[in-house]
Amino acid sequence: MSLKQDGAAAQAPAPAGDSPAARADWLRAELERHNYQYYVLDAPSVPDAEYDALFRELQDIEAAHPDLLTPESPTQRVGGQPLSAFDTVRHAMPMLSLNNGFEDDDVLSFDRRCAQGLGRAAPAAEGTADLFSAAEAVEYACELKFDGLAMSLRYEGGRLVQAATRGDGETGEDVTANVRTIKAIPLRLRGDAAALPAVLEVRGEVFMYRRDFDKLNARQAEAEEKTFVNPRNAAAGSLRQLDPRITAKRPLSFFAYGLGELQGAARPGTHSAMLDWFAGLGMPVCAEREVVRGAQGLLDFYRAVGERRAALPYDIDGVVYKVNALAEQERLGFVSRAPRFALAHKFPAQEMTTVVEDIEVQVGRTGAITPVARLAPVFVGGVTVTNATLHNEDEVRRKDVHIGDTVIVRRAGDVIPEVVAVVLERRPADARAFVMPTACPVCGSHIEKLEGEVIARCTGGLICAAQRKQALLHFAQRRAMDIEGLGDKVVEQLVDQGIVHTPADLYKLGVAKLAALERMADKSATNLVAAIEASRATTLNRFVFALGIRHVGEATAKDLARHFGKLDGLMAADEAALLEVNDVGPVVAQSIANFLAEPHNVEVIEQLRAAGVHWQESEPAARAAPAPLAGKTFVLTGTLPTLAREDAKERLEAAGAKVAGSVSKKTDYVVAGAEAGSKLDKAEALGVPVIDEAAMLALLAEAQTGDQS
Ligand code: IVH
């Protein structure tokens, strides 16, 4: 697949004379060139501001000289007066549809029919892709089947005079005013006017890029207007507007794929050459196309596109094969409403409707509670889907999904299936609204939803089976209980084999049990038991961090340990008492209170203590002698003689000081080591006291608050 379209015309020199007519002509050509670069080639040529300036200049000239205004002027893309209805248009040549194929066999039969219809040699063997020898194989143009709306664009003398929808194939609706607002569609064809065909009907698809669709939907939601289910519906809805000014605001695009009436120019010999010709005339033509031979070539193209489908920036629902030589197309002709020379090879549908039989909740590894729709089985995106995520409670309300509803389900690529929208007309009288449970379906713990958060969570962090692996890994990590050797693989087995349920169970593990695990030798089992053993002696802040309370990171755990000094003090604290802790706000306080209100969690904490996990307790900070360094701000700079920067910081913080990154008037001390740089200069300039490591250690010795870490 290659990009077939390149080389925009170079900028024409600005006219020498200053006649408004000449200037307007030049501006129009410039703006068209930039439009083409931007919307057709996807390669912007000027900054927006420059484009806007040219645009305004042209608007001003046209306002001052209305006689100079042309319907093809780029200024006319903003949309004209609203219509009361669309006129009906009879197509000069009917707009046909395509026969569909789904299986490889359909493709083999299509190829066989084409080859036989063209009088090629008899098939070598039935049911294989190599029916014909290379020389006899039919040549095909392969392209994408865009998921949008078919459109016929009529150019006369190179000017867009009419745009019509397919309608019933014989007559469609005149949507010229709307289509004029689509910037990818040229209002004038490119090239030498004398060489342009007298009449050219280009057929193709109006569609919307996914990124544009997302932006449009976000904008619609923001304005509390209706959002669209998918890019196709958005494109259709935008084209059917009677007010072209609305269409002008919708980011529609276009790809050309076929020819209608042609007068005053010779038809190219092949479909692929025709698309190249269209591209040269300034029409957007998709670069994802290829010329192949025989059924195997078709199937290869189908597979290659199938693999990239999810990554394409627009929706497609299949690929289209067309016999490449137009003379051969003519010989093959049509059956009823579809050509014999073309086939749409469809991909499995990515959207289907089905019924929501129930809405249940699932608990994730981090305790996140996700509502999941249980669906009547439906084949979508190539697999049978029975569940679709509803993400969170707000999403269920926003999409208004009830149990019993018929919904549109989407599964694109490997993405988890999701409910796109409810088909409200099909809501049964006994449909039931979803009620968020208050208890975790896995462990029965309370479900919390902290203020300002969208996700509800199970509070049984230490005992919930759904969260076990995560909780154990968190508990064992270096910065928590520091149990070396208790990694992913071991935790996985310990939990899956039902050996460990809570962190307290770790302290019951013996070498024999561990050595029986996969990929665990006696030596590593012995080491792990030793590491577990060693972890019994810890610090209160490590222990608090290890519990995995939501929003309690290392820093908060330290604050809590320093503030309460003893675990019992922390466990007895209510939200009000927690709010007194340095840097603990309402969300954190609520999260800690919820965790400790869960009897199962308390039980595990007790089991851990009973298993011998211990630390040095200290006096609560409030009642301890006030730390002399509390409220003092330090800045560290340069290399200290004995302490690493992190160690120095930790010691200062443990003594209640704050360690800042830059020097200001509020800095109390700058601790300077070797090769101190600009911070030292600044301290001197501001008159902030500068001390060395020894002086800092002396201050710390005075502080004597007991290092928690
Ligand atoms: S060719 C004579 N090529 O598919 C053949 N159609 O059922 C006329 N479509 O409504 C159609 N991508 O809108 C052709 N590359 C493509 C297409 C394509 C999408 C749509 C078209 C039409 C339907 C045909």
TrEMBL record:
Q: Do you know which SUPFAM superfamilies this protein is assigned to?
A: BRCT domain, DNA ligase/mRNA capping enzyme, catalytic domain, Nucleic acid-binding proteins, RuvA domain 2-like
Keywords annotated in UniProt: DNA damage, DNA repair, DNA replication, Ligase, Magnesium, Manganese, Metal-binding, NAD, Zinc
Q: Name one GO molecular function term.
A: DNA ligase (NAD+) activity
Q: Where are the transmembrane segments?
A: none
Q: Which InterPro entries match?
A: BRCT_dom, BRCT_dom_sf, DisA/LigA_HHH, DNA_ligase, DNA_ligase_AS, DNA_ligase_CS, DNAligase_adenylation, DNAligase_N
Q: Which reaction does it catalyse?
A: NAD(+) + (deoxyribonucleotide)n-3'-hydroxyl + 5'-phospho-(deoxyribonucleotide)m = (deoxyribonucleotide)n+m + AMP + beta-nicotinamide D-nucleotide
Q: Does the keyword Magnesium apply?
A: yes
Task: Tell me if Membrane is a UniProt keyword of this record.
Answer: no
Q: What EC number(s) does the entry state?
A: 6.5.1.2
Q: Where does Zn(2+) bind?
A: C440, C443, C464
Q: Where does NAD(+) bind?
A: D48, A49, E50, Y51, D52, S97, L98, E143, R166, E205, K322, K346
User: Looking at the record, which segments are called Disordered?
Assistant: 1-21
Question: What cofactor is this protein dependent on?
Answer: Mg(2+); Mn(2+)
Pfam families on file: BRCT (PF00533), DNA_ligase_aden (PF01653), DNA_ligase_ZBD (PF03119), HHH_2 (PF12826), HHH_5 (PF14520), OB_DNA_ligase (PF03120)
Which residues are annotated as active site? K145
All residue ranges annotated as the BRCT domain in the record: 624-709
**UniProt-listed HAMAP family:** DNA_ligase_A (MF_01588)
* Function noted in UniProt: DNA ligase that catalyzes the formation of phosphodiester linkages between 5'-phosphoryl and 3'-hydroxyl groups in double-stranded DNA using NAD as a coenzyme and as the energy source for the reaction. It is essential for DNA replication and repair of damaged DNA.
Return the PANTHER family for the record. CHROMOSOME TRANSMISSION FIDELITY FACTOR 18, DNA LIGASE
Q: Which family does it belong to?
A: Belongs to the NAD-dependent DNA ligase family. LigA subfamily.
Protein name, per record: DNA ligase
